[in-house]
Design brief:
single chain; about 300 residues; alpha/beta; Rossmann fold; 8-stranded mixed β-sheet; 9 helices; 8 strands; globular; oxidoreductase activity, acting on the CH-OH group of donors, NAD or NADP as acceptor; oxidoreductase; 15-hydroxyprostaglandin dehydrogenase [NAD(+)]
Length: about 300
């Protein structure tokens, strides 16, 4: 069910920066309206909104301030898309975080820099990286069914959805979850005749040169100094477009993006390294993890 994005409408969470910004920019350039749902806009995203105002004759962009952990605000994204454009055809629940110091496996709730609390009984990283894309997927499916029109949902996974990474175990777990969700919904593209086709797939990037990394010193310390292995967000956005427009990328497809682009198979897959997309950390970075564990052991 290839979908030409021209004259369509997309909802993209996290499009205020990074991969999702590049995806929004690419779609707008191809004549697709975009609802940008994020907590804030970086200057380049603000400029993009100004370039495609609601008063323009072609593609249009709308910013809707959105906390993706708040389900009511997620509902509002769809209401805005319906109000301005008659509804959404493409949905990308792309907002995500990379195990920050404020919701981190190695900094337990109620300690250090963690904002996760014992009383709250939840991890913010799971609310953003797992619960939000699951809930948006439910909403998008209902939205497409009620409109009785086909739709596409594009998720952002990671090479971490296959490969382990000692410094960021919760992030890795969240991307394994996204892979499982996408694969489990593959049959939506082949529904009974009276229902619209819905494609659910994902892109799985290697290490991406975005503010998610470059604005965080603790993450940059993880990067190999002589071989960082960066992939550009523009490259990833192009593959995300292919997941919508190309017939061969049927529901359940996960495309890895690194030195090469390749399909991630459900079983008997060689992993990112087999496609030249393995990510290595600076050898000294793991010392921080062991130091945290030694500190906890000393407190007994």
């Amino acid at each position: 069910m290839a979908m030409n994005v021209e004259n369509k409408t997309a909802i993209i969470t996290g499009a205020g920066s990074g991969i999702n910004f590049c995806y929004a920019k690419l779609l707008l350039g191809k004549g697709c309206n975009v609802v940008i749902a994020d907590l804030m806009l970086r200057p380049e995203a603000q400029a993009l909104i100004s370039e495609y105002p609601l008063e323009s004759k072609g593609a249009k962009a709308v910013f809707q301030k959105t906390d993706v952990a708040d389900w009511a605000q997620l509902e509002t994204m769809f209401e805005i898309a319906t109000k301005h454009f008659g509804g959404a055809d493409i949905v990308c629940p792309g907002a995500g975080i990379y195990e920050p110091l404020w919701s981190n496996f190695w900094i337990p709730p109620g300690t250090g820099t963690s904002r996760d609390t014992i009383e709250g009984s939840r991890y913010a990283i799971l609310d953003i990286n797992v619960t939000h894309p699951i809930r948006v997927t439910q909403m998008a499916i209902s939205h497409f069914l009620k409109r009785n029109k086909p739709g596409v949902i594009v998720h952002i996974s990671s090479v971490g959805g296959q490969a382990p990474n000692f410094p960021t175990p919760v992030y890795v777990a969240t991307k394994h979850a996204i892979n499982g969700l996408v694969r489990s919904l593959d049959r939506l593209e082949d529904p009974p005749a009276h229902l619209p086709k819905i494609r659910v797939n994902a892109v799985a990037p290697a290490r991406i040169l975005t503010p998610l990394w470059t604005d965080n010193a603790e993450k940059m310390a993880m990067v190999m100094k002589n071989n960082p292995g960066w992939v550009t967000p523009e490259d990833v956005a192009l593959v995300m477009l292919d997941l919508v427009e190309k017939e061969e990328h049927v529901g359940g497809t996960i495309l890895e993006v690194g030195a090469t682009v390749g399909r991630v198979e459900t079983f008997n897959d060689g992993g990112p390294a087999s496609r030249g997309n393995g990510v290595k950390n600076d050898p000294g970075y793991e010392k921080d993890m062991w130091a945290m564990m030694e500190k906890i052991a000393a407190e007994k």
